[in-house]
């Protein structure tokens, strides 16, 4: 067994994993291939060669619709056998997180989900992920014969290479039909989008009393040309903001120049999403709130007093 | 409806200290609690039982402190608890833990539904639900934020299905599967009840079973540190070097913070 296979249901993520996979494949001296499942698998194959795949294993089967983790895991296991692969990199999307551990169990293999870094040392693949709710980062090595790694979906950008050619290999799969029925798919409301790329990120938490009070926050956000995000209760319990605005362990991660936390206690599951901000400013009326421990600057006070004053000051500085 | 809820006791993550010089976490002696996702799983199980009857069993693998921690599960409404605290299970990786849980479930035998947190509060790996689904050869659904049990009748035999709303990044997916099934839930599912004092007192009288390796038929080559296939090389907190300049006077704070932000050059217009 010797080879790396890449799979993600998101094309961009698969191409990003191939981009990183090229580097790993050359350091580990393994061939790099991609698994493409479903109807247009064949059409997508050619493009992957430009990102480093030297073989594209393509397969389709009625059993692959709708998505069921057990079926996809069975499919990828068979492809790994064809590819003689000992490492599979999967996009750690929600689907990927359901799929990767199931595949690992089918292979009696070790697995790491939500990987935030991949590297090679002493001919071993070192995988980093967060631990203890985000308090720490742990570095791991999978020692089973096969290794399943689910990588954060936007960790690596897709970068084409010059040249690049490969072979398309159709695989016929033996699969049992899915037993899960999908009755309905309801698209989610889209908020302001790419918080990951915000220069200035302003987040609100449960210190805000009412959805209507967002009208107090927005002028502040505008005064610094920022984007508005939130903690999990705001989006997922109260639905005051859309779910794609939630920052943290189970939401978005961002490395802005400035992160401004308003009425946020600073629990690790949230703050882990902004740990890499250049400057952190917090406003909270509890001077013992943990958020002040990770802040560069803090103002202890009622946000309903502080925010209007801060907005006014910033507007006057920037002449708006 | 017999429901098994898998619960993991985790240390209170809010109380972890980081040694400033080595960046190592200090976790010794911290209180142990159940994660939010698991509490929602248990709450849902109790609600389903209130509506459809049957039994709720809480199942947990961990340190002997579980004898105390598990009482919360019994107080919230589990009818019975099974804890597995043998030292043989210490330092298992996800595959080892999944094997213990799956074997314990197998021993329980009669179940319609297995509920878990989609991910645990400390590891947040999401590995256990798919792994036990695979070990028990059952269908699974993760990221469930709404659940509904449908009982029907198909030519004289009772049928049970579960309808779940799966929370994907860009959509909600409504899925239906036959029971038994493995379902991982998120905290949007419900708001767990706080156990009233009377329930906490009564919890001590509910059956609490302790099972060891021989009860579930597991050996040291399947579980524990020796069977682990994931080696942890290091586990350290990232270096955080924050200024921690805190103003308790609002007027002064606003003026100084704006000045500092302009100096830091993080605001460009
Ligand atoms: C597995 C798991 C994953 C999770 N993932 C995430 C995640 O990705 N993102 C996330 O955000 N959370 C996540 N959580 C939830 C997280 O643990 C916290 O519950 C959440 O971040 C708390 O949000 P908060 O700070 O808004 O609320 P609270 O903790 O309630 O804090 C509110 C703060 O507002 C302050 N306040 C109140 N009134 C005022 C006022 N008038 N002026 C100023 N300050 C005021 C209070 O002092 C308090 O500090 C997760 C939890 C689990 C178990
Ligand atoms: N040691 C354990 N005992 C019982 N249940 C567990 C254990 N570990 C994990 N679980 C369950 O599996 C879920 C997902 O955990 P994880 O795979 O660690 O993210 C948790 O929310 C629990 O419901």
Shape of chain A: elongated
Shape of chain B: globular
Termini Cα gap of chain B: 61 Å
Mean pLDDT of chain A: 95
* Alpha carbon gap, first and last residue of chain A: 63 Å
- The helix content of chain A is 25-40%
Strand proportion of chain B, as a percent range, falls in: 25-35%
The number of distinct β-strands of chain B equals 15
Structure description:
The complex is a heterodimer of chains A (320) and B (269). Chain A has 320 residues and is α/β, with parallel strands linked by helices. Chain A has 2 domains: 4-170, 3-Layer(aba) Sandwich (Rossmann fold); 195-318, 3-Layer(aba) Sandwich (Rossmann fold). Chain A is built from 8 helices and 16 strands. Chain A has helices at 11-28, 41-49, 69-83, 94-106, 214-223, 232-237, 268-271, 303-317; strands spanning 4-7, 32-37, 55-59, 87-91, 110-115, 117-121, 124-131, 136-142, 147-151, 167-170, 181-187, 200-204, 227-230, 258-262, 279-284, 297-300. In chain A, the strands form 3 sheets. In chain A, strands 5-9-4-1-2-3-10 form a 7-stranded parallel beta sheet, sandwiched between helices. In chain A, a hairpin with a 2-residue loop joins strand 6 and strand 7 (124-131). In chain A, helix 5 runs parallel beside helix 8. Chain A is elongated. Chain B is α/β, with parallel strands linked by helices and 269 residues long. Chain B has one domain: Rossmann fold, CATH 3.40.50.620. Chain B is 29% helix and 31% strand. Chain B has helices at residues 36-52, 66-76, 94-108, 128-135, 197-203, 213-216, 250-264, and strands spanning 2-6, 9-11, 17-18, 25-26, 32-34, 55-61, 80-84, 113-117, 140-154, 157-167, 171-178, 181-185, 208-210, 230-236, 245-247. At the A-B interface, helix 3, helix 4, strand 5, strand 7 and strand 8 of A face helix 3, helix 4, strand 9, strand 10 and strand 11 of B. Strand 11 of chain A pairs antiparallel with strand 11 of chain B. Adenosine monophosphate (AMP) is lined by residues 6-8, 35, 37-38, 59-62, 94, 97, 101, 116-117, 119-120, 123-129 of chain B.
């Amino acid at each position: 067994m010797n080879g790396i296979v890449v799979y993600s249901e998101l094309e961009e993520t698969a191409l990003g994993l191939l981009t990183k996979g090229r580097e790993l494949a050359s350091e580990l001296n393994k061939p790099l291939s991609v698994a493409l499942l479903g109807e247009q698998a064949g059409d997508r194959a050619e493009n992957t060669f430009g990102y480093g795949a030297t073989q594209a294993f393509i397969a389709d089967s009625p059993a692959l619709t709708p998505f069921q983790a057990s079926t996809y895991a069975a499919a990828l296991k068979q492809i790994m056998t064809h590819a003689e692969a000992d490492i599979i990199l999967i996009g750690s999307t929600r689907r990927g997180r359901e799929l990767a551990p199931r595949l690992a169990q089918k292979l009696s293999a070790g697995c790491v989900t939500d990987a935030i870094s991949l590297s090679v040392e002493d001919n071993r693949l070192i995988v980093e992920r967060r631990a203890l709710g985000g308090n720490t980062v742990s570095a791991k090595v999978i020692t089973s014969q096969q290794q399943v790694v689910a990588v954060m979906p936007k960790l690596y950008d897709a970068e084409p290479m010059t040249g690049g050619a490969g072979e398309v290999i159709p695989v016929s799969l033996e699969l049992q039909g899915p037993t899960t029925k999908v009755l309905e798919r309801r698209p989610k409301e889209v908020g302001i989008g790419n918080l990951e790329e915000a220069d200035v990120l302003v987040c609100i938490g449960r210190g805000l009393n009412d959805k209507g009070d967002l009208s107090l926050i927005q002028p502040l956000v505008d005064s610094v040309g920022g984007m508005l995000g939130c903690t999990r209760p705001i989006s997922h319990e109260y639905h005051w903001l859309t779910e794609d605005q939630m920052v943290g362990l189970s939401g978005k991660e961002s490395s802005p120049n400035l992160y401004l936390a308003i009425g946020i206690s600073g629990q690790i599951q949230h703050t882990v999403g902004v740990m890499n901000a250049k400057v952190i400013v917090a406003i909270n009326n509890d001077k013992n709130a943990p958020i002040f421990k990770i802040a560069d600057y803090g103002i202890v006070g009622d946000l309903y007093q502080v925010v209007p004053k801060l907005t006014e000051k910033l507007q006057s500085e920037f002449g708006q | 409806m017999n429901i098994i809820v898998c619960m993991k006791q985790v240390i209170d993550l809010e109380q972890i200290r980081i040694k400033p010089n080595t960046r190592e976490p200090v976790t010794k002696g911290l209180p142990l609690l159940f994660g939010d996702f698991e509490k929602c799983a248990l709450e849902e199980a109790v609600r389903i039982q209130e509506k459809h009857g049957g039994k709720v069993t809480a199942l947990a693998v961990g340190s002997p402190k579980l004898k105390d921690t598990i009482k919360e599960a019994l107080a919230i409404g589990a009818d019975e608890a099974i804890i597995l605290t043998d030292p043989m299970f210490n330092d298992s990786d996800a595959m080892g833990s999944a094997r213990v849980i799956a074997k314990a479930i197998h021993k329980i035998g009669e179940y319609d539904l297995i509920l878990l947190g989609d991910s645990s509060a400390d590891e947040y790996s999401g590995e256990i639900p798919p792994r036990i689904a695979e070990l028990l050869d059952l269908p699974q659904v993760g990221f469930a934020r709404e659940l509904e049990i449908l009982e029907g009748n198909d030519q004289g035999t009772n049928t049970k299905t579960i309808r779940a709303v799966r929370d994907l990044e860009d959509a909600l997916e409504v899925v239906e599967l036959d029971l038994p099934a493995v379902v991982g839930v998120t905290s949007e599912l419900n708001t767990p009840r706080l156990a009233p004092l009377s329930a906490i007192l009564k919890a001590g009288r509910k059956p609490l079973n302790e099972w060891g390796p021989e009860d579930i038929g597991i050996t040291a080559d399947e579980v524990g540190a020796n069977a682990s296939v994931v080696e942890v090389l290091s586990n350290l907190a990232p270096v955080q070097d924050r200024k921690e300049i805190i103003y308790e006077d609002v007027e002064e704070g606003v003026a100084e913070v704006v000045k500092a932000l302009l100096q830091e050059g993080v605001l460009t217009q």
